[in-house]
């Protein structure tokens, strides 16, 4: 039996990185920038992929591109192959020089202005030849990227149960209100006192929103959420303008227009450092150990 690859596979293999980048980015210019090639060169490679496969894989959508049904089928079957090859090359290169390499590191939207940059500055001083690709996103997005190999490590609040993780600490949650709000002068409040208040919160897919809903349910009511927003700085600004109250972690940079009111039954959530179910490179292991011993 002949186990050698077909002519189509031999022709397609060198072009898979171009196909993968364009399929993931949904935009020719951004995909070309990611690969560091001219846009015209990427376009030629994508045409070559379609010619080799024999079907149309992309279609224009506004200023970007979208996969056709055939393109989605091919992307679904090849994306793990491209990630695995990328990981294999990274491992081989890192093993040859453990003081260099690339680490894809993610962290949540409620951390970053102070703690993460300071931590990474210390790491860079200790390992200046290790490159860091940083991603900031909400918990579920980070978890998905660690699961499918797009991230090597991620600080998550809380870490998902299906990924290997270590506990770094806990993040306290408090009530925040504008200075003129009737609750702003209180030393502490109980969750039962917040029934009927207008809340500003994240969308339901965010962990902090799920905590709000469950804690209010324990207190016997459904919170009235008048604004839903993903961006935490804007959320705090809406609270500062008196448009509602919010349950949030303490901001890493001071926000003088907000009043923090502790909850009588202290509430917090776990901070963890999660890794994927794949073999880490020496560079990844070095950052993991650095964070675990410093935080």
Automatic annotation (TrEMBL):
<dbReference type="Pfam" id="PF00126">
    <property type="entry name" value="HTH_1"/>
</dbReference>
<dbReference type="InterPro" id="IPR005119">
    <property type="entry name" value="LysR_subst-bd"/>
</dbReference>
<keyword id="KW-0010">Activator</keyword>
<dbReference type="InterPro" id="IPR036388">
    <property type="entry name" value="WH-like_DNA-bd_sf"/>
</dbReference>
<dbReference type="Pfam" id="PF03466">
    <property type="entry name" value="LysR_substrate"/>
</dbReference>
<dbReference type="InterPro" id="IPR036390">
    <property type="entry name" value="WH_DNA-bd_sf"/>
</dbReference>
<feature type="domain" description="HTH lysR-type">
    <location>
        <begin position="15"/>
        <end position="68"/>
    </location>
</feature>
<keyword id="KW-0238">DNA-binding</keyword>
<dbReference type="InterPro" id="IPR000847">
    <property type="entry name" value="LysR_HTH_N"/>
</dbReference>
<keyword id="KW-0804">Transcription</keyword>
<keyword id="KW-0805">Transcription regulation</keyword>
<comment type="similarity">
    <text>Belongs to the LysR transcriptional regulatory family.</text>
</comment>
<protein>
    <submittedName>
        <fullName>LysR family transcriptional regulator</fullName>
    </submittedName>
</protein>
């Amino acid at each position: 039996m002949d186990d050698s690859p077909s002519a189509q596979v031999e022709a397609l293999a060198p072009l898979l990185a171009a196909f993968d980048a364009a399929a993931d980015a949904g935009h020719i210019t951004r995909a070309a920038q990611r690969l560091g090639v001219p846009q015209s060169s990427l376009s030629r490679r994508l045409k070559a992929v379609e010619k080799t496969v024999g079907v149309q894989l992309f279609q224009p959508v506004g200023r970007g591109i979208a996969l056709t049904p055939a393109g989605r089928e091919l992307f679904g079957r090849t994306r793990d192959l491209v990630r695995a090859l990328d990981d294999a090359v990274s491992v081989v290169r890192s093993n040859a020089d453990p003081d260099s390499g690339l680490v894809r590191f993610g962290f949540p939207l409620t951390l970053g202005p102070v703690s993460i940059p300071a931590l990474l500055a210390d790491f860079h001083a200790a390992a200046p030849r290790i490159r860091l690709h940083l991603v900031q996103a909400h918990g579920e997005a980070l978890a998905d990227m660690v699961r499918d190999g797009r991230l090597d490590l991620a600080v998550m609040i809380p870490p998902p149960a299906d990924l290997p993780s270590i506990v770094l600490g806990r993040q306290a949650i408090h009530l925040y209100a504008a200075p003129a709000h009737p609750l702003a002068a209180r030393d502490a409040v109980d969750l039962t006192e917040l029934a009927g208040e207008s809340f500003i919160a994240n969308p339901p897919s965010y962990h902090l929103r799920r905590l709000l809903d469950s804690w209010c349910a324990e207190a016997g009511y459904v919170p009235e959420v008048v604004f839903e927003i993903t961006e935490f700085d804007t959320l705090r600004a809406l609270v500062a303008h008196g448009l509602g109250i919010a349950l949030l972690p303490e901001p890493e940079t001071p926000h003088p227009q907000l009043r923090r009111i502790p909850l009588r039954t202290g509430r917090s959530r776990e901070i963890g450092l999660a890794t994927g179910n794949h073999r880490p490179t020496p560079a990844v292991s070095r950052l993991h150990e650095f964070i675990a011993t410093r935080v």
